[in-house]
Amino acid sequence: MAKKKAKTKKEKADEMIRYTSRDLGQEYIMKRKMIRAIVMAILLAIGLAIFVALYIDEKHRVQETYRKQYRNSIVAVKEDIEDYQNADGDFELRYRRLTADAAVMSSFAFLLDDFEERQKVVNLFYTTVLKYPKQTEEHFDDFKAAFEDLLANLDKGYDEIQAVIDKFDLKGY
Questions:
Q1: Segment 104-162, tens digit of pLDDT
Q2: Which sign, positive or negative, has the C-alpha torsion 47, 51, 53, 54?
Q3: Within 10 A of 98 (CB to CB), how many other CB atoms are there?
């Protein structure tokens, strides 16, 4: 049997340096990888923050567009009521146009955020205009006044619409 060769102190030292330098290289590589991972995480967080800010900005822009369209539809309904009242004939066509514009107003009310209670009143207005044309004709002046208040940015217009609709006989025509 061959005897193991006894290592000298110099060989032990060379071997320790070789292993130590290898371990130091691994540590250096791991530090670089961690720094790279931290930098990537920071960049991703910044990108996410930018994306969220752009999303919120675009959402506000879209809501502003919906609010403008909703306001335009209120103007259209008010003008339809005035046209109907001032017309000499073709009442059916004018009333159909009123119901169509009321449907548009109801649709845009549905798209607005934080508008649930007012949306119920607008939908109720559309439903009563659609189902009860004879009773609606009797209350055109009240509705017109309510829409003028809405155009003046007064919330009492919704209460006025609700009060007029409460006067309707919902079992009749």
A1: 999 999 998 888 889 999 999 999 999 988 888 889 999 999 999 989 988 888 999 99
A2: positive
A3: 23
The whole model's pTM is what?
A: 0.72
> For residues 51, 53, 57 and 63, what is the CA-based torsion angle, rounded to 10 degrees?
90
Both structure tokens of 120: 């119920």
> Helix 156-166 vs helix 140-151: angle between axes, to the nearest 10 degrees?
160
Listed in sequence order, the residues at least 6 apart from 147 whose beta carbon sits closer than 8 Å to its beta carbon are 74, 77, 78, 81, 157
Q: Are 144 and 82 in contact (CB under 8 A)?
A: yes
- Tell me the torsion sign for CA atoms 54, 59, 62, 68: negative
